[in-house]
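Lecture notes, continued. The same structure-token format from the folding unit now serves as the input rather than the output. Read the line below as a description of shape only.
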């Protein structure tokens, strides 16, 4: 991977075999791109968290508020927050993408649908993803 604007993109070889050049690399579960932006990692995290929320939605029939929040915090949220100090998104589009899943989770409860998003978070005792 070549990082930086002034990089000469030298061709590296090891024991006579030329190494492949990549634009992204996954290290400890975090996608690092050559431009050091986290958009690809946010997209991957969004897809994984979306799948986990869908699994939770499909498998749990009785949606008790307390139980669902516990399941969300233990099954979905860890994928969303994994190593967030490393890749902390600073672009608004990345933050909104990750917040969208939690927004969908708060809409699972019929009695909370009439409330605003921040009020639903308060009722469920959740923080926004950005916090």
């Amino acid at each position: 991977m070549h990082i930086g604007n002034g990089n000469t993109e030298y061709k590296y070889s090891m024991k006579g075999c030329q190494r492949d050049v990549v634009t992204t690399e996954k290290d400890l579960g975090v996608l690092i791109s050559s431009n050091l932006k986290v958009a690809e990692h946010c997209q991957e995290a969004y897809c994984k968290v979306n799948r986990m929320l869908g699994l939770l939605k499909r498998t749990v029939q009785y949606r008790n508020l307390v139980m669902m929040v516990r399941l969300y915090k233990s099954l979905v949220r860890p994928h969303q927050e994994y190593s967030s100090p490393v890749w902390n998104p600073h672009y608004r589009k990345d933050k909104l993408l990750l917040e969208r899943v939690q927004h969908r989770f708060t809409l699972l409860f019929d009695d909370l649908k009439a409330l605003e998003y921040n009020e639903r978070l308060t009722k469920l005792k959740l923080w926004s993803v950005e916090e």
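Point for the exam: The first strand starts at residue 13 and ends at 14.
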